[in-house]
Amino acid sequence: MEVPESPIPGDPKGRIEQQVIGEGKARIFRDGTMVEATWRKGAGFAQLRFYAADGSEILMNPGAVWIAAIPSMDNLTVEGGI
Length: 82
Description:
By secondary structure, the protein is an all-beta fold. It is 0% helix and 33% strand. The chain contains no helices and 5 strands.
């Protein structure tokens, strides 16, 4: 999922803050396919949800789910059988 990020001012360790409230682009990799999607999260307590281009919610398969937050989809390279 693509999220805006910026350095935390004055942080001696150079950490960043990611804006995970709102919405942005995402790519979902599930069952051997990739789906262009949009992520949405309305508030800090709200559940993160993903939506397909037609507006339908993309449900995750049961089990472990890995989510990576990156500042730009330009940083994501997809290779192989997807």
